[in-house]
Design a protein that fits this description.
The protein is mostly helical. Helices cover 71% and strands 5% of the residues.
């Protein structure tokens, strides 16, 4: 018997076709695992974004270094002209011009990097949520179709003695009670089908659910809310009739909060590692440490909290994206910092040589 001829559900939720959705679906057909797919997508995104990260850090270092040089003069100006705002602003601008310090430089670099990061973050977040909704729906409809194939008809909800019960509507239109033996066979068939269609990754039982103590299967209300379908399409008693065997078999947590902890820890470490390396280098060389991240301090402490909240309340696919991205930053941050230092030192030497040649010609 053809499953599609039994179930009237397939398919109410259309397969998402956005950019990120198409990339994820396309790559998954090759990789055959959504966890590995999002890791590869994340690495590709981070590699593309790497030049923007370098530019942002370079601009921050350049402006921070210049500010460290002009700070003593700036303090003198502020002390001398503090009572006269107009003169203070004029003298400050003259000082900035003298040292070729661009007030907006670091802001623009940070803004560009932040806007690009946020655009990718939220568009991918939206795309993965759409994929999760689609996969949750198709997973359930597949299970219901499997159940209906075994019992030989469409599951419907009826009210008997003021109680809602599940019955079977046969192909001839007649309605019969759900046979217990058939129901047990259907339960086993659903469990077997779930093992075939489920999307797990490492310790996470269901990648479309968060890495927490959540059940692998959504409650009926959450299922309706997540898939945005009308309650009339899938009745509550029918939904639980189909999914309860999975709940019993997969009893326990969907995950162990590992991705939540990792998302916070790696987000913090990926920004701090360059600071620690910079301080170590400054101590080793005897030079004063210039914090190129001084203008982004608030992000260092706020972002780990934000990442943990996203990982806590949304699907594990997006949590994997955040953790992979932070680990990539953690691995590449020392290299980017070294490259920024070398390029900046080369630029300083070139500027000093230019100044020396210009002075010798006078």
């Amino acid at each position: 018997m053809d499953i599609l001829n039994i179930s009237s559900l397939m398919l109410e939720v259309a397969k998402p076709t956005g950019m990120w959705e198409s990339i994820v679906f396309g790559l998954e057909t090759l990789v055959k695992n959504y966890g590995l797919t999002i890791i590869l997508v994340t690495l590709a995104i981070k590699l593309i974004m790497l030049p923007f990260d370098f530019y942002n850090r370079y601009i921050n270092k350049r402006n921070s270094s210049k500010m460290a040089v002009i700070q003593p003069e700036l303090e003198k100006i502020q002390k001398k002209y503090g009572a006269n705002r107009d003169v203070l602003n004029q003298k400050t601008m003259e000082l900035y011009k003298k040292h070729n310090y661009n007030v907006m430089g670091s802001c623009l670099g940070m803004l560009l990097n932040m806007v690009l990061t946020m655009v990718v973050f939220f568009t991918l977040f939206s795309g993965l949520n759409k994929i999760a909704s689609y996969k949750i729906y198709t997973e359930y409809t597949t299970l219901q179709a499997t159940y209906e194939q075994v019992v030989g008809g469409q599951l419907i909800e009826q009210t008997e003695n003021e109680q809602k019960v599940v019955k079977v509507k046969l192909t001839d239109g007649s309605v019969v009670a759900l046979d217990e033996t058939k129901a047990n066979e259907a339960n086993q068939a659903v469990i077997q089908k779930y093992d075939e269609v489920k999307e797990s990754f490492l310790w996470i039982k269901n990648i479309w659910r968060p890495d927490t103590n959540a059940s692998v299967m959504l409650s009926y209300d959450d299922f309706i809310s997540n898939t945005k379908i009308d309650k009339g399409e899938i009745n509550e008693q029918v939904y639980y009739q189909v999914t309860n065997p999975i709940r019993a078999k997969e009893d326990g947590w969907n995950g162990y909060y590992i991705l939540i902890l990792l998302s916070a820890a790696t987000s913090y470490l990926s920004t701090q590692v360059s600071v620690w390396l910079g301080k170590a280098k400054a101590k080793r060389t005897g030079k004063p440490y210039v914090d190129a991240m001084s203008q982004n301090k608030i992000l260092i402490y706020v972002m780990p909290i934000v990442m943990a909240m996203f990982a806590l309340f949304y699907n594990a696919m997006f949590a994997l994206y955040m953790v992979t991205g932070s680990l990539f930053g953690l691995a590449t941050s020392p290299l980017v910092t070294m490259l920024v230092d070398k390029v900046y030192e080369k630029a300083v030497k070139k500027e000093e040589e230019k100044t020396r040649v210009s002075y010798s010609r006078k």
